[in-house]
Design a protein that fits this description.
Helix content: 55-70%
Number of strands: 0
Largest sheet: none
Distance between the termini: 28 Å
Number of helices: 5
Shape: elongated
Strand content: under 5%
C-alpha cells in the first residue's frame, strides 16, 4: 500500500481562503464568538485570579514604599520575589486557570469524541 501523493490531498476550501493577513487584521477570527471557548475562559480566569492574588501580595511592598524604611534595592528585590511567586507556574493564578480551563477542555474533548 503506497502513501497518497501530496497532490491527492486537497486542503479545506475554508482554510485555503483564509490567510495570516486576515488573522492579523482581525484577531477575533482566531476563535469563534463563543464565550465558553477555552482560550477566552483561560484569559478571563487568569486575569481575574492574578488581580485577586496580586492585591494582597503586593500590599506589604506598597507599604514599604510609603514608609521608605528600606533601601530601593531591597524594595525592588521584594517586588521581584512577589511577582516571581505569583506569576510562576506554582502560583495561584496558574493553578486556578488550569483547574477551570482543564475542565472546559476536557468537556470539549469528550463532546467531540
Amino acid at each position: 500500500m503506497s502513501a497518497p501523493s501530496p497532490r491527492a490531498i486537497e486542503p479545506d476550501s475554508d482554510r485555503s481562503k483564509t490567510s495570516w493577513r486576515t488573522y492579523i487584521a482581525n484577531p477575533k477570527n482566531l476563535w469563534p464568538d463563543d464565550p465558553s471557548h477555552p482560550v477566552k475562559v483561560a484569559l478571563r480566569t487568569y486575569s481575574l485570579s492574578l488581580s485577586l492574588s496580586l492585591g494582597p501580595a503586593l500590599l506589604p511592598v506598597v507599604l514599604t514604599l510609603v514608609n521608605r524604611s528600606s533601601s530601593p534595592e531591597t524594595r525592588l528585590g521584594s517586588f521581584r520575589r512577589v511577582l516571581r511567586r505569583e506569576v510562576g507556574l506554582a502560583g495561584f493564578p496558574f493553578a486556578i486557570t488550569v483547574a477551570v480551563c482543564g475542565g472546559i477542555v476536557l468537556r470539549r474533548f469528550l463532546e467531540t469524541v
